[in-house]
Write a structure and sequence with these properties.
The chain has 392 residues and is an alpha/beta fold. The chain folds into 3 domains: 101 residues, no CATH class; 58 residues; 208 residues, Double Stranded RNA Binding Domain. It is 41% helix and 25% strand. The chain contains 12 helices and 6 strands. Strands 1, 2, 3, 4, 5 and 6 form a 6-stranded mixed sheet that branches. Helix 3 packs antiparallel against helix 4, helix 5 packs antiparallel against helix 6 and helix 6 crosses helix 8.
């Protein structure tokens, strides 16, 4: 309890030391304004020191901000208009925070004086100046743009995007953004290639490319399974090579085993030393369970067949004309089926044996059917690799 009182007292002491004037002296003018506004809010008997503290903080922070704006000299250095705009918004927000309190009169009759400055024209000037700068910068980057200058195109797009905070519609911003986006995109051609010494089932290669292209695409990356009609060049080829494809023989094995369980089968009387039936304290006959072992002979048939598909995803830079990455991909589709019959007491069967009771095992799948299952996993793995690549 004493510890809690000590902590509470210390907290109150620290809070009391944090005055408006202390914050002003430290140069934390916005903090001083916030604290002064909090102390003045809703109070009828306002203290002169709080009004003066707010007055001083407001004057000093505005003087500081306007001096900084002048030092930026955005008319000579238009790339600084964004910063000027941000500072003007701070000034405007600060003035709106204080205006609801005006007029501020203390209980001693002191009237606070706050010099408000109209920021609308200055904000409009900064908005226009920043927009002109970003637009001209984008136009310069897009001059004679081509597909090999993706960095310029993406930078131009981001320059134009910055105008959105100032104007929704500005000159030909939208059309320039479309141009920048078109030339800045990375395009990837998806292909498959059979390098395995095996015949791949008909349409399997096409199925491997039957992926959700929209799900793969991002804003700056587009995937295709075909060449574009307007001869827009591709930047990369992502080639799924199948270099090994095997299907195991159909294997069927048979085994016989016996399950057994010990169960209660009636009871026996417990005899005393004289050979008579023993009695409990109430005079009742004492009995004990009689256990017997039951068995069931099981004949089990097990079928197994496996398809194995192995390959790699190769990423080829078409501009540099070189292989830049390679990811191994493999998948295995396994078919198994059990069937079993038993002779004897059903109660002796284990849970595993019960679950496999059926007259006949499932039929073996066709080779092609199993290969397709394995290929589907290969396709999923390929998609995962493509989505994780960061240099597209």
């Amino acid at each position: 309890m004493k510890r809690m009182i000590y902590i509470l007292g210390l907290t109150l002491l620290i809070a009391s030391c944090k005055s408006v004037q202390n914050l002003v002296d430290k140069g934390d003018y916005d903090g001083a304004i916030h604290l002064a506004a909090k102390k003045l809010h809703g109070k009828k008997n306002k203290k002169t020191k709080h009004i003066k503290g707010l007055e001083e903080a407001f004057a000093k922070v505005n003087a500081r901000d306007f001096a900084y704006i002048e030092s930026l000299n955005a008319r000579a250095y238009p790339e600084r208009w964004d910063k000027v705009y941000d500072i003007l918004l701070d000034i405007d927000s600060r003035q709106h925070k204080i205006s609801p309190f005006l007029p501020l009169i203390s209980k001693d009759g002191y009237v606070g004086h706050f010099e408000f400055i109209s920021t609308a024209d200055r904000i409009e000037e900064a908005s226009l100046g920043a927009s002109v700068y970003h637009h001209q910068r984008a136009e310069a980057l897009l001059t004679d743009i081509n597909y090999s200058r993706k960095a310029d195109a993406t930078e131009a797009f981001h320059e134009l995007k910055k105008i959105d905070r100032y104007f929704r519609n500005y000159k030909n911003k939208e059309s320039l953004m479309e141009i920048a986006h078109h030339f800045g995109k990375t395009r990837v051609k998806l292909e498959t290639r059979n390098t395995a010494n095996a015949v791949i089932p008909r349409d399997l290669q096409s199925e491997l490319l039957a992926v959700s292209i929209p799900a793969l695409n991002s804003f700056w990356t587009e995937f295709y399974t075909y060449d574009l009609e307007d001869n827009t060049p591709m930047d990369f080829r992502a080639v799924l090579e199948i270099d090994d494809l095997e299907v195991s023989p159909e294997r069927e094995t048979q085994r016989q085993y016996q399950d057994s369980q010990e169960i209660v089968d009636g009871f026996d009387y417990v005899l005393d030393e004289s050979g008579n039936v023993a009695k409990d304290t109430l005079g009742n006959d004492i009995t004990q369970d009689k256990y017997v072992t039951i068995t069931a002979d099981v004949i089990e048939i097990y079928r197994e067949k496996t398809a194995y598909v192995k390959g790699s995803l190769k990423i080829i830079d078409l501009n540099g004309k070189q292989l830049i990455d390679q990811f191994p991909i493999s998948s295995e589709a396994i078919f198994t089926s059990y069937a079993s019959q038993f002779f004897g007491d059903r109660r002796a069967l284990s849970n595993a044996s019960r679950n496999r009771l059926r007259s006949n095992p499932e039929r073996f799948p066709q080779d092609e059917e199993l290969i397709w299952q394995a290929a589907e996993e290969v396709k999923i793995t390929m998609i995962d690799f493509l989505q994780d690549i960061r240099y597209f």
